[in-house]
Design goal:
Layout: H1 5-17, H2 20-27, H3 31-45, E1 50-53, E2 56-59, H4 61-87, E3 94-99, H5 105-116, E4 120-125, H6 129-137, E5 143-149, E6 160-170, E7 172-176, E8 186-187, E9 196-198, H7 207-217, E10 223-226, H8 234-238, E11 244-246, E12 256-261, E13 267-275, H9 281-301, H10 305-311
Parallel strand pairs: 3-4, 3-5, 8-12, 9-10
Antiparallel strand pairs: 1-2, 5-13, 6-13, 7-11, 7-12
């Protein structure tokens, strides 16, 4: 059997994900289908490409050589396709943008639209980083602003590039404005041991696992009683029935308080990812600056986030 492009993309996805199951999710196929494809490819090469361990899979010596060649071939192929696509880019009239759910989405989209005018921007907002990554992989979006937890990673397809917008950002806590802890400027995670929690957005990305791990370090297991889409748990918070992690630019609503968590026990990062075949380097730079400026403006306007932001200039994105 001669190697095909799908075989090369498959082994690269497995290596980057560190797991056949995660790679299958990224590629949008079932785990048995990917396992079968890998096994057939290994038989054609006459050796095993990956070995399994307690923490996932890792390449064998043969696998390392295969990956090196595969990445070179895919890079050339993506460059070839990108050159052809972008050379005809004068007729490009629209781009599809994905983004995590953030307070600054409206401003960010407006800035990106202005920066890329006359190209029309359509937008998908999704709390799941995995969903945003898969949309890029399956050509349902052209670029995306993706939030990732610090202690987990979301693998991206080989033809998707990425650039860090914010290397570190904290998660804050939303609680009722009448809660006894709402009067504090920051709250210890340990003081929330008796609270009922709304599952954090993007639970399949590892955010729920991160919450549980942080609470265990604080001495308890969180009581996660509710699941709600973005904004769907607002009334639970306002009435004091639950608390929830929120992104730091969040302003909450009437009856809600947004507070810092002492010591930043949960953190993430923000990346810009894009399909190389759809966006030029100049457009990436323009888009990055529009996103960075929009986020910075909202960080400075937030009464809760602004002090943290001022104290951590090392995380500020470049805005000029």
């Amino acid at each position: 059997m001669d190697p095909e492009i799908r075989h090369l993309r498959a082994i690269c996805a497995i290596a980057e994900a560190g797991s056949v199951t995660r790679a299958a999710a990224l590629l949008g196929i079932s785990q048995p289908a990917l396992t079968g494809l890998l096994q057939r490819f290994e038989r054609s090469l006459g050796g095993q490409l990956f070995e399994r361990g307690r923490t996932g899979v890792r390449p064998t010596a043969l696998g390392e050589r295969a990956l090196q060649r595969a990445r070179l071939v895919l890079a050339e192929l993506d460059s070839f396709a990108g050159d052809l696509t972008l050379s005809a880019g004068t007729s490009l009239r629209s781009l599809r943008m994905g983004t995590a759910h953030m307070e600054c989405v409206g401003t960010m989209v407006e800035r990106v639209q202005t920066a890329l005018d006359p190209i029309e921007i359509s937008v998908q907002i999704d709390a799941s980083a995995i969903s945003l990554a898969q949309a890029l992989t399956h050509h349902r979006s052209d670029f995306a602003v993706i939030g990732m937890n610090d202690d987990s990673d979301v693998p991206l397809a080989p033809d998707v590039a990425q650039r860090t917008v914010l290397p570190r950002l904290p998660f804050f806590i939303a609680l009722s404005s009448s809660h006894p802890l709402a009067g504090r400027p920051e709250i210890d995670l340990a003081d929330l041991a008796d609270e009922a929690w709304i599952s954090p957005p993007g639970a399949d990305d590892g955010s729920l696992a991160s919450l549980r791990a942080a609470c265990r370090r604080a001495g308890y297991s969180p009581k996660v009683r509710y699941e709600a889409p973005s904004g769907g748990g607002r009334q639970l918070i306002q009435t004091g029935r639950a608390v929830q992690l929120v992104e730091p630019t969040s302003l909450g609503a009437t009856g809600m308080a947004i507070r810092r968590l002492a010591g930043d026990p949960l953190r993430g990062r923000l990346v810009l990812a894009w399909r190389r075949s759809r966006i030029t380097d100049d457009q990436v730079e323009t888009t990055y600056l529009a996103i960075a400026r929009a986020y910075t403006d909202h960080a400075l306007r937030s009464p809760t986030y602004a002090p943290w932001w001022a104290a951590h200039p090392e995380v500020h994105p470049r805005t000029s």
